[in-house]
Design goal:
Helix 3 runs antiparallel to helix 4. The chain has five helices and eight strands; from the N terminus they run H-E-H-H-H-E-E-E-E-E-E-E-H. It has 180 residues and is of the alpha+beta class.
Length: 180
Amino acid sequence: MDEKKLNNCFKNEITMNDYTLREILLGIWTYKAVRNKMPVIIYLLAVIVPMIYAFVTGKQEYMLLAGIIFLAGLVCLLVYAVVVARSGAKKREKLIRDTLEKYGDGAILSINFGENIRYCFNNIEKTINYDDIEKIIEIDMYLILRLKNDVSLPVWKVGFTEGKWDDFIPYIKQKIKKQS
């Protein structure tokens, strides 16, 4: 095996433009929003506890209270969802605007995976180790490598110029396990 193959098992490239940034950021936001179940859990507890108390004690006024909490809580839950969605949309738009202003439309993100991870974005090169990966998030067309320094590296499923997506997933999981 030649030296290049040993150092770069996989290479992925993405053109970062408005569409790509929107797709990645919306995918990350959706992933996080779906995983945040605390508001729903609180809502269900607030409704179920008075119902159980009403059944146990036979006090029907608690059943009425549960109905009122159900309706009020449902309204609050919907308002919360709208506020969170709008806030997330504003943050995404600002990040997209700032990124495009700073790097321009069509900057290339190139990521090389070998003994370590080397990435280059708009002539800025960095090298990191696999133990710098804090979390892996899989969304529709991307695998997001969330780093400990709060940087997110998107790996595009069809952006491989060396290696293949189907071989990359077991490779990255093995590399991360070795570092743990």
